[in-house]
Amino acid sequence: MPEMIEHTVGQIIEEMTVYREAQFVSHDELRTSVRVNLDFVMRALRGAGMPDLSQASSTGRARALQGAPLPELLRAYRIGLTEVWQQFVDLTARGDRGDLAALVAATNAIWVLVDDYAEALTTAYRDTTAELMLSRQNRRLALIEALFAGGTATEGTLWDIARMLDLSLDGTFVVVAAETPGVGQEPLPQIETRLRERNHASAWRLTPDLQVGVVSLRNADASRAIIDLLRENVAGRVGVSPVFSGLGNTARALHLARVALSSLAPGTSGTVQFNESPLAGLVASAPEASVQLAYDVLRPILDLAGEERNVLLLTLRAWFDCQGSTKLTAERVFCHPNTVRHRLRRISDELGRSLTDPADIAELGTALRALYMFPDTTHLPLPSMWRPPEEYSARW
User: Fold this and answer.
1) Can you give the C-alpha Rg of the chain in angstroms?
2) Among 198, 259, 331, 373, which residue has the fewest nearby CB atoms (within 10 Å)?
3) 160-210, pLDDT tens digit by residue?
4) 3-state secondary structure the chain
5) pLDDT band at 280; cut points 50, 70, 90
């Protein structure tokens, strides 16, 4: 046994770099492992009951925890079992009939052990690796959650988050918030891989209603390329924060990304960055106050009968879309310019506000924006035309 142990250890060290350089276990630890495993092999070959594979499982788990590669581990086992087989070959070298029968029996038993040991070791190794991956994934998700939650993230935690997520603590970022099509469904499938292919590190989490991620930018100008990527095959609403510096500002950026998402009409598709529509961001960031503003400003029209109400609201909306041009508004709502002028005078009279006073125009525009963004809060059957085509959403 001592000779087999030393010869096996020597051969493993000679043939395998990871063991020769003691990358995962020292030479003393390797020698101990070889001794224990060869002892189990010899006990199994005595034929006393079923072979005990606990040592193979134990070794597989230990090496998985150390990060040793599985193929190298299996190769070391084969070297040890081949050493045992070689001993039988040497002991039966005379070639007597009894010796030959013993060699055949020993060979069969050894190669059965090779299969059994390999299966036990591989199963333990893979189970342990799966546990480690799950543990790392859970920790990663917890750190991502802490990053987006803000508040609880201390300086030390931020260092841990940056290291774990492979992000720069003082880098330049954007946050993306994408509306999920259903519970557990990613609106941006494989987005982390697609970004990595373009040399952008990112970290993502999926909630029942949103897929959110923080994306590291190589430079501030790279945000446009990120938005172009997000717009590829977009199937829902996607909001993007302004470019920001410092990983500790992620939570606030998430709020702005959600505000940008809310600036798109429910049920539509598109990608918008917060700074593309400041008014939309302002309205979406304070939905209750914005809805109250819409009621306060537009109540006289909202209280009108359905068809009359809708005609006036659509005309006013078209007038804003067309930048106050009566001619373009008439083309938009399919009527004569004089009809538009009549409706605008009616709107001004009903609301008691002037369409030439900048202050009144600002309030009317904000109120319309709130009504557009939160149509369900009016409990009024607004026509489908109330939600404009996507090409106008950026301006609105």
Assistant:
1) 35
2) 198
3) 788 878 888 888 999 999 999 888 788 888 888 888 888 888 889 888 889
4) CHHHHHHHHHHHHHHCHHHHCCCCCCHHHHHHHHHHHHHHHHHHHCCCCCCCCHHHHHHHHHHHHHCCCHHHHHHHHHHHHHHHHHHHHHHCCCCCHHHHHHHHHHHHHHHHHHHHHHHHHHHHHHHHHHHHHHHHHHHHHHHHHHHHHCCCCCHHHHHHHHHHHCCCCCCEEEEEEEECCCCCCCCCCCHHHHHHHCCCCEEEEECCCEEEEEEEECCHHHHHHHHHHHCCCCCCEEEECCCEECHHHHHHHHHHHHHHHHCCCCCCCEEEEHHHCHHHHHHHHCHHHHHHHHHHHHHHHHCCCHHHHHHHHHHHHHHHHCCCCHHHHHHHHCCCHHHHHHHHHHHHHHHCCCCCCHHHHHHHHHHHHHHHHCHHHHCCCCCHHHCCCHHHCCCC
5) low
| Closest to 65 measured CA to CA, from 22, 18, 127, 108 | 127
Instruction: Calculate mean pLDDT across residues 241-256.
Output: 87
Contact 58, 124 (CB under 8 A): yes
Tens-digit pLDDT profile for residues 96-153: 767 777 777 778 878 877 788 888 888 998 998 888 888 777 777 778 888 888 765 5
Is 20 within 8 Å of 13 (Cβ atoms)? yes
Contacts of 347 (CB under 8 A, 6+ apart): 301, 312, 315, 316, 355
Which residue, 318, 310, 351, 321, is CA-closest to 334? 318
Give the chain's mean pLDDT.
Answer: 82
Rounded Cα distance, 213 and 200, in Å: 12
* Alpha carbon distance 182, 187 (integer Å): 9
- Give which of 27, 52, 31, 57 is closest to 42, Cα–Cα: 52
% of residues, the chain, pLDDT over 90: 15
